[in-house]
Specification:
The chain has a domain at 187-263. The chain is built from eleven helices and no strands. It has helices at 3-68, 71-83, 88-104, 108-116, 125-142, 145-158, 167-181, 187-198, 205-221, 225-238, 243-251. 33% of the residues are buried.
Length: 302
């Protein structure tokens, strides 16, 4: 063995020894990691078990309220979720839906009480906007304008705390509620806001109910009872026990036949051919619906 071979052998021995130490340390370290990895995996599973049902609940709630118009079923669904929530944070979310469900069912005083008892510390600020907005909606129906104004001020005070992503969401609520507040003084502006936020095709019958109900309020404000009754008749004919139908029955003056306003859902299997103009103006609509769970409920206005 010459010097060159000797040095090379020492180097190989040293590298091999270091590799053994490193390998041994790595495996020992991995053994130490097993416990936290198992704990982390368990936490992920538990968290999925907690938040997963909330996603399914949100979808079912929207279908009951917006499509099926089974508002009392929605209230019972919310009540069950609220009473069986696994954590305080999840319970606060269910409580928000519970208050919304009570509003849709026309149980305004109960809705206000439910919404006002939510622990705001358990929810992000965007949820606070939604809570206050639905309290204001309830107050418009109970004519409690003092609470309405106070709660609207709370929305405006909360706006700066909302992230940039949801600023338009908050602004839309302020815009709608201010128009509702001033409908008697400025009915044309109110109508403009109603057209902007409620006159859209999203596939839900509830959207048409809200639009016609809000439009009826405009017609009453300008003294056009016939047009108001046409809108109210549509709501009554198609609204089941949705709160707009309950309110419409109170405002209706029987100037038209309700049965003439039953809505027939168009059949997509029977397309209608029609001549298209050479130039078609694009129509854009801004949606203020935030993402669901952990950000904000899917609901926008009513």
């Amino acid at each position: 063995m010459n010097r060159k071979t000797y040095i090379a052998s020492l180097i190989i021995l040293g590298v091999g020894t270091a590799a053994l130490f490193i390998t041994n340390y790595f495996f020992a370290y991995m053994e130490m990691l097993y416990i936290p990895l198992i704990v982390m995996l368990g936490y992920i599973v538990i968290k999925y078990k907690v938040t997963g049902p909330l996603q399914a609940f949100s979808t079912k709630f929207s279908m009951l309220v917006d499509y099926d118009l089974e508002v009392e079923q929605a209230v019972e669904l919310c009540k069950k979720g609220y009473e069986n929530a696994p954590t305080k944070n999840i319970q606060a979310l269910y409580q928000l839906y519970y208050g919304m469900g009570l509003y849709y069912a026309g149980r305004y005083d109960e809705a206000i009480k439910m919404l006002n008892t939510i622990d705001l510390r358990k929810l992000q600020s965007i949820y606070h906007i939604l809570i206050f907005a639905f309290v204001c909606y309830c107050c418009t129906e109970t004519k409690d304008w003092e609470t309405f104004r106070y709660t609207l001020d709370r929305i405006k005070a909360t706006q700066p705390k909302v992230g940039a992503r949801y600023q338009s969401f908050a602004n839309n609520y302020v815009e709608i509620l201010e128009a509702v507040q001033n409908v008697e003084n400025d009915p044309e502006h109110y109508k403009e806001i109603v057209e902007k936020h409620f006159n859209r095709e999203d596939g839900f019958i509830s959207t048409k109910l809200v639009y016609n109900y809000r439009l009826a309020i405009y017609h009453k404000a300008v003294g056009n009872d016939l047009e108001a009754d046409k809108c109210l008749a549509f709501v009554i004919a198609n609204g089941k026990n949705h709160h707009t139908a309950l309110r419409a029955k109170e405002l209706f003056k029987n100037l038209v036949n309700v049965e003439d306003f039953v809505y027939v859902i168009p059949n997509p299997a029977e397309p209608v051919e029609e001549e298209q103009p050479e130039v078609i103006e694009s129509q854009t609509g801004e949606s203020s619906e935030p993402d669901q769970v952990e950000e904000a409920p899917e609901k926008k206005e009513e």
